[in-house]
Write a structure and sequence with these properties.
Blueprint lengths: L1 H12 L4 H8 L3 H9 L21 H13 L9 H10 L6 H16 L15 E13 L2 E12 L5 E6 L4 H15 L5 E4 L6 E4 L5 E3 L1 H10 L2 E4 L9 H14 L5 E2 L2 H15 L12 H11 L11 E6 L5 E4 L2 E4 L8 E6 L3 E6 L2 E7 L7 E2 L15 H4 L10 H11 L15
Parallel strand pairs: 1-4, 1-8, 4-7, 11-15
Antiparallel strand pairs: 1-2, 2-3, 5-6, 9-12, 10-11, 12-13, 13-14
Helix pairs in contact: 4-6, 5-6
């Protein structure tokens, strides 16, 4: 622009000839004449669209077919451009990923039009952690089922952490935060969340929040400020919202298969570490793991872990069972008819009387099933020895040798009138 202004000034103001200006600048006289006629700034106009590598040998049609097939699937099962590229490679495609990515982008734009506009957010190192839930489908023990995935994301470094549960109950929320903070190795200043009932019990018209007391206990333990988003404003925690979609396409399409939930979580832990090796979306010269070192330096020390249980008072039935979440768990027989405290953790059930733990079970997520510890019922055999024959707590129990002799005694119909082996001699 400065050269054009100088040329116009030399000719139109100073009166110099076009030939002398062309000799001094090295420009063609026709070019100088064009500058003199048009006072608008010069610009470059592309004569033809740029030449890019294209899908060939019919792979463009194949890719469009795959894309259209995906559009008929549930949204959570649709493949990403990366997955579609891998499918084409398995079918013989030898090109790069970029043409596939552009092709899929154009197809999406043609179907949806322009998107919404948002204001970019900024978070300093160690400042904020975002949290959200998603629902995914996996195969556990050969059975396809739904699981709930707790998503965490450090806002500055973008480092992710996910852990799977059978549900979104409050004890799962508490356990997820304990595991996430342990994974990150420190505590950020605040956490940005939605408004689920497990964390926020009330939202007023003025957007004031009343947080759940148990969730506040977690926040107080780690001295972390909870920040609840405005309802229906997911962009306020857009990073973790995007993470849900990204990890769904990367990790859960096709459905992964594991023996149990623990094996799935072990795999997710390793994948979170692997994903931290990706380039940072804003600092392409650094990886997420490298940016996380800045985060880690600003995190506060973790301290002891929060005891993440939900407690309720229950009455022990005459069958020595307490109920939680439609299943029943046994306690020692001497507590039958008493009120005890039941503490539900994400993976276990603990029963407390006073200050003493009287029973502990692995938590199950079946329905209407009783889970027994046979030793809880052994004292009752003194008064009801025949229960050893058909008693539900003793089914499949690996009995000590003495118990085997007693069971054989009561399963022998010919000895049904014999003296009780538990009776005391006169």
């Amino acid at each position: 622009m400065e050269s054009v202004l100088k040329i116009r000034r030399w000719v139109l103001v100073d009166g110099r000839s076009i030939r002398s200006v062309a000799r001094q600048t090295g420009l063609l006289r026709n070019t100088i004449k064009k500058y003199l006629k048009d006072d608008s700034p010069p610009s470059y106009h592309r004569q033809a669209p740029p030449t890019r590598h294209k899908l060939c040998n019919g792979f463009d049609a194949r890719l469009q077919t795959l894309f259209e097939q995906d559009q008929k699937r549930p949204r959570r099962e649709r493949r990403t451009a990366q997955k579609l590229y891998e499918q084409l490679v398995s079918e013989g495609y030898t090109g790069s990923y970029s043409p596939v990515q552009r092709f899929i982008r154009d197809l999406k734009r043609a179907g949806t039009g322009s998107g919404e506009a948002f204001i970019p957010l900024y978070f300093p190192a160690g400042d904020a952690l975002q949290f959200d839930w998603s629902e995914e489908r996996v195969v556990l023990g050969g059975v396809e089922q739904k699981i709930k995935l707790a998503h965490f994301r450090m806002c500055y470094s973008r480092k992710p952490f996910v852990v799977a549960y059978h549900g979104e109950a409050q004890e799962m929320v508490l356990d997820a935060f304990v595991q996430a903070l342990s994974f990150f190795g420190g505590v950020p200043r605040r956490v940005i969340i939605d408004n689920p009932k497990t964390m926020v019990t009330y939202v007023s018209r003025s957007k004031d929040r009343i947080f759940h007391p148990r969730f506040l206990a977690l926040m107080n333990h780690y001295v972390m400020e909870p920040v609840a988003c405005t309802p229906a404003s997911g962009w306020e925690k857009g990073q973790v919202e995007n993470q849900v979609q990204f990890l769904r396409g990367r990790l859960f399409v096709p459905k992964p298969a594991f023996d149990d939930l623990d094996a799935l979580n072990d795999w997710l832990f390793l994948r979170c570490e692997d994903l931290a090796g990706r380039p940072h979306p804003e600092r392409q010269d650094c990886t997420i793991a490298q940016m996380f070192e800045d985060d880690r330096a600003k995190l506060r020390p973790l301290g002891r872990a929060f005891d993440g249980y939900v407690e309720k008072t229950v009455r022990v039935r005459s069958t020595c069972l307490v109920q939680y979440d439609s299943n029943r768990y046994s306690v020692p027989s001497q507590f039958a008819g008493q009120h005890v405290s039941l503490r539900a953790y994400a993976n276990r059930i603990v029963v407390v009387s006073g200050q003493d733990i009287i029973a502990e079970h692995k938590r199950h997520f079946t329905r209407n099933i009783s889970y027994f510890e046979p030793w809880h019922y052994v004292p009752l055999l003194d008064r009801k020895p025949g229960a050893l024959r058909n008693g539900a707590p003793f089914v499949g129990w690996q009995l000590p040798q003495a118990m085997h002799r007693i069971r054989e005694h009561y399963t022998n119909e010919h000895n049904s009138s014999s003296i009780c082996p538990f009776s005391q001699p006169d």
